[in-house]
Amino acid sequence: MPGPITQQMQEVIVPPKSGFLLYASLALMTVVLPLRQRLLAAGTAIGIDVVFILVRWAAHIRVTQGHPFGNGALWVILGCAVLAVTRRADQERVLLLKGVGLALLLVAGRKTGDTWLLITSKTRSMVLDQYVATADHALGNPSWLVGRMVRSTGPIGAGALNIVYGQLAVAAVVVAFYQLRNVATERRFPDHHLVRTFLVIGLLGPSIYMLFPVVGPVFAFGADGGNWAIANLWPDTPTLVNAPHLMPFDGITPRNCMPSLHTAWATTIFIHTRRGPRALRIAGTFWLVATLGATLGFGFHYGADIVAGVVFAYTIEAGLRSLAHGWDRSGFQLVAHGTTVFAALLLSYRYLPVQMADHPWLFGPLLILAMTSVVHGYLRTTRLWEPKAAPARQPEPQPGLA
Questions:
Q1: What does DSSP say about strands 247-248 and 126-127: parallel, antiparallel, or unpaired?
Q2: Peptide bond into 259 cis (omega under 30)
Q3: Does one domain contain both 1 and 139?
Q4: Is 140 in the same domain as 221?
Q5: Is residue 102 domain-resident?
Q6: Are 130 and 244 in contact (CB under 8 A)?
Q7: What residues pair up with 98 in beta bridges, in sequence order?
Q8: Going by C-beta distance under 8 Å and a sequence separation of 6 or more, which residues neighbour residue 15?
């Protein structure tokens, strides 16, 4: 199978898998450019795409997979890399290459994630869905509940959630573009921004997939699992509380549930919009809520995955914020606390699922409390890192006039 870099280079010519992502990456790269050059880059990309579309139409080439546009955006990104090497020098060259690298990393990260999904399906023949589904009784089986709610909204509600779920990377670029809006004038990147966390989550998340393979309720207990599913139970009939076992599954479905990386990414977007304007804060909240509705409502994740995803996101964010701030005792404690809670969640799902299902009023609040402790610790610690505002200067007293 071609790897992510090979796939990315093929999209110089072939129809890209996601044209929206390529244009979002182009927008991210242009944060290092002044406004006039941004418009020139966008116009050039659109013009190249028009040529590609006309050539395919004249040659009767039908695009059956991916998008008919996006090649132009990749051409402009690569062209800026050549421009940086041949026509820029010193700091200007470094800044433009950083912008190009940021754009290419976003695309490569997405394709690397797709490659990892293939690896999980080919190398993890046994899955742990019975364990997670049993543990999920402690949370009230939220996937079954939200699945019925989404189904009741019909195709309109499901279609809207599907757009939110599928364009998460584009939403991240919009937030990152706001965070990096001053790069062109300041001629430097900030110490920490959304894209760093986004990429690290995608880098570390698949390793947990390999350790804790889970396919999701719509596959393990629903119609999408076909003959491999235990029964067609999702979302109408919750599973019974029985002793769970490892179960075999096909070699196609990704084992990409534990933790929910979509939840982790949406949580990161939520975190990074808290300091933006009101419209951006509302959008970040909406994207998080809609993503949670999609991950649960489509049967892609259990409630236990969501809890683990939130803890995973805050722990990664804490580590990167500590790196930007400078490691100190509070930073080490914050990351250690998040890592410990995340490990405890996985061990509980694996070795205590029956006890969790038998005592939901104990373990359900404990799960939420553990997740909340990580969020609270992050907020408390990072507030101490904020620069203290200088006290307002008091006007000096003026002597009275005689």
A1: antiparallel
A2: yes
A3: no
A4: yes
A5: yes
A6: yes
A7: none
A8: 56, 63, 65, 66, 67, 68, 70, 71
- pLDDT for 398 beyond 60: no
> Torsion over CA of 245, 247, 253 and 259, rounded to 10 degrees?
10
pLDDT at position 393? 55
pLDDT value for 269: 94
Dig out the tokens for 181 from the structure: 């809006």
CB atoms within 10 A of CB 2: 11
Residue 246 lies inside a defined structural domain of this protein: yes
Q: How many separate domains does the chain show?
A: 2
For residue range 335-390, list pLDDT tens digits in order.
Answer: 999 999 999 999 999 999 999 999 999 999 999 999 999 999 999 998 888 766 54
Assigned token pair, 312: 């995973």
Q: Give the integer Cα–Cα distance in Å for 376 and 57.
A: 56
Predicted local distance difference test score (pLDDT) of residue 395? 57
Cα–Cα distance measured from residue 274 to residue 201, given in angstroms and rounded to the nearest whole number: 19
Partnered with residue 248 across adjacent β-strands are 126
247: part of which helix (H) or strand (E)? strand 247-248
Phi-psi bin for 56: left (phi > 0), alpha (psi -120 to 50), beta? alpha
Residue 23 has pLDDT above 80, yes or no: yes
Same domain? 114 vs 135 = no
Do 132 and 112 lie in a common domain? Answer: no
Per the structure, the complete domain to which residue 9 belongs is given by: 1-123
